Amino acid sequence: MNNRGEAAEQLAAIWLQQQGLILLECNYRSRFGEIDLIMQEGLEIVFIEVRLRSSNAFGGAGASITPTKQRRLARTAEFYLMRHGTTPCRFDVVLLASLDTRQLQWIRNAFEPGLTYN
């Protein structure tokens, strides 16, 4: 990952912790893919994809989370839940236009992949 991507993930993690979430994992990998951040809010596990796009060309940061990417995230989340126990979960997205929290957009429940472990 490039330095800007790592910086965006760190910035998002710190900001979300300030909102009350607890950081469990960074860059969690399985054979299915990677999840940028895994956090906890109350009893719920939150799988978070962080996107940094300085341009809105091609739809901006949100448009880059394609159905294929969503499936990979869901499979990786299933793998995590099988290893760590079943619990309610959701998928959030943090969009950044720059490395500035004033331009951070947090989308809760960004998509519903239909996990069997939630």
Structure in words:
The protein is α+β, with helices and mostly antiparallel strands and 118 residues long. The protein has one domain (3-57, 64-88, 98-107): Trna Endonuclease, Chain: A, domain 1. Helices cover 32% and strands 33% of the residues. It has three helices and five strands, in the order αβββααββ. It has helices at 3-18, 60-63, 67-84; strands at residues 22-30, 33-41, 44-52, 89-96, 104-107. A five-stranded mixed sheet has the order 1-2-3-4-5. β2 (33-41) and β3 form a beta hairpin. The radius of gyration is 13 Å and the shape is globular. The model is unreliable at 57-61 (pLDDT under 50).
Essential attributes:
118 residues; 3 helices; single chain; Trna Endonuclease, Chain: A, domain 1; alpha+beta
Rg: 13 Å
Instruction: Give the termini distance in whole angstroms.
Output: 30 Å
Mean pLDDT: 85
| Proportion of residues in helical segments | 25-40%
Number of E-type strands: 5
